[in-house]
Amino acid sequence: MKKVVLKHNVITLYIKVPVINSEGGGRQLANFRGQIEFRDVSFSYPQRPNIPILKHFNLKISPGETVAVVGPSGSGKSTIVQLIQRHYDVNQGQVLIDDVDIRDLDVKWLREQMGVVSQEPVLFAGSVRTNIGMMESEASQDDIEQAAKVANAHDFISGLPEGYETWIGEGGTGISGGQKQRVAIARALLRNPTVLLLDEATSALDTRSEQAVQAALDKAGRGRTVVMVAHRLTTVRNAGRIIVLDHGVIKETGTHEDLLVLGGIYAGMVASMVIYFVPFTNQFQFAIWF
């Protein structure tokens, strides 16, 4: 007689509970303008409470202004983007949206007013149309195409075998890195956000792809408040204001030209830029890596 041994596989499910409850209600502003202010903000991540990320941080961004945040890795750049979306609450001070404390606002409503484009776009197995319109279920085909045109994506999508109905794989397999980013930009623009948050949106792209995506971002930012975290000179040089962040503190602020004249940290970054030769164009492309 054979002995049968049954093996039981035990699956443990870990459910990550958001730090901020997005279903808690709160105020919705009738005429959202897109003004953002950090007022004496200090912040540490809950997992590392003894490591300060921002220290008495002050920054006011006017409606429609484009502000670039640069600095070395770990300086707190991406933290600013996360706090604007209220993924965390500050330890000290206030984040104000149109002069209202962000903690008094409806979190779900707040995030719906913002378009976010990150370094690695999240794309799912499905049609290009579905990937653009997935956050706006009532969007028409015309709405989707208009967003794609602003994102400089319409032409390449139209050239795909089945146009907007072309199937792409999980993670966007089947299209290039630059095309993935433009699909992500179109998705962000479909809701017509007042605030556009760009978290290293071009840092993973090659130079040729970056040029196409940067042109799309420049067009997408018109008439919106834009906060961009970036590593490359080509991304930040045309910003209305550049903030140089180091260890959670603003060290320099000004336009590209202002900061070059200042001759400080930013000027040093520019001096250490890498020069790329762009194939087939007979042109040199300047980039900056911090």
UniProtKB/TrEMBL annotation:
It comes from the Eukaryota. Keywords: ATP-binding, Membrane, Nucleotide-binding, Transmembrane, Transmembrane helix, Transport. The keyword Aminoacyl-tRNA synthetase does not apply. The chain crosses the membrane at residues 259-280. Residues 36-272 form the ABC transporter domain. SMART domains: AAA. It holds the Pfam family ABC_tran. One of its GO terms (molecular function) is ABC-type oligopeptide transporter activity. Belongs to the ABC transporter superfamily. ABCB family. Multidrug resistance exporter (TC 3.A.1.201) subfamily. This is ABC transporter domain-containing protein. It comes from Schistocephalus solidus (Tapeworm).
